[in-house]
Amino acid sequence: MKNPPLQENETLRLQTLYDLKALDTLPDAELDRLTEFVAHVFNVPIALISLVDSDRQWFKSRVGLDAEQTHRDISFCGHAICQDGVFVADNALQDERFFDNPLVAGELSIRFYVGCPLKHPNGCQVGTLCLIDFEPREFNEHDASILAQVAADVVERLIKLSRE
Predict the structure, then answer these.
(1) pLDDT in tens, 93-127
(2) What are the structural domains, with CATH classification, of the chain?
């Protein structure tokens, strides 16, 4: 298993995340609708809005998963926020970064993961809109475009909530 790397702008990224005032807050109906929408459109059992903190990823919205957070060092989202575009692990069991990850090798048995970074207007990626399945899958450019559009809506909503 490879731990997610820290970004060069990690201090600014974390400050941007904290300025959104979204961590450990109550659910938001609009964000929950967006999460349910992508779960339905992509026909996945789990969809999450994940905010990547210094040592954890916390789920602002979730469909199909009871956990509220996981450790950052085992997170797929920690890897995804280091990418400019959509991050795809078609088959986590065959991916050197994840094959022995407890989320893959353990009870949850993740096989497919896609995470679209939630990119703040200042350029910092504070989390992801992600899709998870228990079977390997493919994800094409058209799919990535749809997920990126919804991720932009998530960022807009998070910013709006921080100003209320």
Answers:
(1) 999 999 899 999 988 899 999 999 999 999 999 99
(2) 10-163 (3.30.450.40)
Half-sphere exposure in the Cβ direction for 62 (13 Å, CA) = 15
- Two structure tokens written together for 159: 């910013």
Give the pair of three-digit tokens for residue 40: 């339905």
Sign of CA dihedral 29, 109, 71, 117: negative
- CA distance linking residue 110 with residue 101, whole number of Å: 9
pTM to 2 decimals?
A: 0.94
Low-confidence ranges of the chain (pLDDT < 50): none
48 CB-side CA count, 13 A: 27
Q: ∠ CA 21-51-23 to the nearest 5 degrees?
A: 30
